[in-house]
Specification:
Layout: E1 3-7, H1 11-20, E2 25-30, H2 33-37, E3 45-49, H3 57-62, E4 67-70, H4 74-86, E5 90-93, H5 105-110, E6 114-116, H6 125-136, E7 138-150, H7 165-173, E8 176-180, E9 183-187, E10 194-198, E11 202-208, H8 215-218, E12 223-230, H9 234-244, E13 252-254, E14 257-259, H10 261-273, E15 281-293, E16 296-307, H11 316-333, E17 341-343, H12 345-349, H13 352-364, E18 369-373
Length: 374
């Protein structure tokens, strides 16, 4: 396998393309000329300007490549995976789409295609870690806390969008599913907020988000939950916006025009949330797994703290998400992924060789998960 196409040239898509171009022949596709222009200095990356939302365009673009990387906003993710499968191409996708990926499982198997989804940091690495430990022990509890934030806390939001801003809004809207005592529980986003200590930053606020995703179907674990991290106080102001209707997709009649409030909100928030050039961000991920191993109660805690790379000028979220994706791409290229159909990241972690390969690949790039056992 030599030719890879990366769909999307945003913050994360760019880092994926750059990393893969060290080994493979890479082409990056995007609708935004300025995003592609940022890749022009990399001689091993070809760029192609087109609108992938146009009917038939994804199949046309991917047909000449050996592997597809999906790095598009969540609202395009499901259709991207579907169209790539229909084209008979393998795909590794990182988008945060709403739809159930397993609806495409039969199609992918029929096409003899592997579609690895949620191949980022959260969801992604948390799933891989859980998949590994679930093979070794009887897991009774899984908790995952994750977030990407700017070091500089600027009023009023104390936040910058380190991945697709539309997917950030999804975290504030989409109902959150988790598993409690073997039962599926659905709560509204931003619910059950708590304050926790996350070194070296200090106190951060966590709340329910819909990050378990495929784990709800693939793992028979009685207690599983995923929460997003932000600076304390975030829940209150986001709830004010949401409850007032700023995130609503229902059109309002304004001066004779039908306008969706969320579109106006996005136009106002995204410039404020945009990371400035070389503005430093960090990523935190904490995965806590409890259960019985060889008849003994065990607790494994993985902690990640990663920061903006001043040498390569790469955001931490692009590093932690992008390099997880590229690790999986290398894993796939070596023939270490045998699964056909929809392949969530927890399936990758089941094999210790895969688990170790991904962790070592990340360590080589300065992304390190620190493990403590109790």
């Amino acid at each position: 396998m030599k030719r890879i196409v990366v769909l999307g040239a945003g913050l994360v898509g760019k880092s994926i393309a750059v990393d893969l171009s060290k080994t493979f022949d890479v082409t990056t596709v995007d609708v935004n000329h300025s995003s592609l222009e940022k890749l022009s200095k990399y001689k091993n990356i070809k760029t192609y300007l087109t609108d992938l939302s146009e009917e038939g365009e994804i199949q046309r673009v991917v047909k000449d490549f050996d592997l597809v990387i999906g790095s598009l906003p969540g609202y395009m993710g499901y259709e991207t995976v579907k169209q790539t499968i229909l084209a008979g191409k393998d795909i590794i996708d990182i988008s945060f789409f709403r739809e159930d990926p397993f609806e495409l499982d039969e199609l992918a198997k029929k096409q003899n295609v592997t579609a690895i989804i949620d191949a980022g940091v959260a969801p992604g690495m948390g799933n891989i870690i859980l998949g590994y430990h679930n093979e070794k022990m009887e897991v009774s509890s899984y908790k995952c806390y994750g977030g990407g934030l700017p070091f500089k806390r600027e009023w009023p939001y104390e936040y910058k969008a380190v991945f697709s801003p539309l997917d950030v809004l999804e975290e504030y809207i989409r109902p959150a599913r988790y598993v409690l005592n073997g039962e599926l529980v659905v709560r509204e986003a931003l619910s059950e907020a708590e304050i926790g200590l996350f070194e070296p930053i200090g106190s951060l606020q966590a709340w329910n988000t819909d990050g378990l995703r495929t784990l709800i179907k693939t793992m028979k674990i009685p207690n599983m939950i995923e929460k997003t991290l932000r600076y304390p106080g975030t829940v209150n102001y986001i709830k004010v916006l949401r409850e007032t209707g700023f995130f609503s997709s229902d059109p309002l009649l304004v001066n004779g025009m039908q306008i969706r409030p969320i579109d106006v909100t996005a136009k106002l928030l995204f410039p404020v949330w945009e990371l400035k050039k070389d503005e430093e961000d960090y990523t935190i991920l904490r995965v806590i797994i409890k259960g019985k191993e060889n008849g003994v109660e065990k607790k494994y805690t993985y902690n990640l703290f990663d920061r903006f790379d001043k040498v390569t000028h790469t955001t931490s979220m692009a590093r932690t998400t992008g390099y997880t994706c590229t690790a999986v791409a290398h894993l796939f290229s070596k023939g270490m992924v045998k699964h056909k159909g929809i392949c969530p990241p927890e399936f990758l972690g089941v094999d210790k060789k895969n688990f170790d390969f991904i962790l070592n690949y990340l360590i080589e790039r300065g992304v390190e998960y620190n493990l403590t056992e109790e």
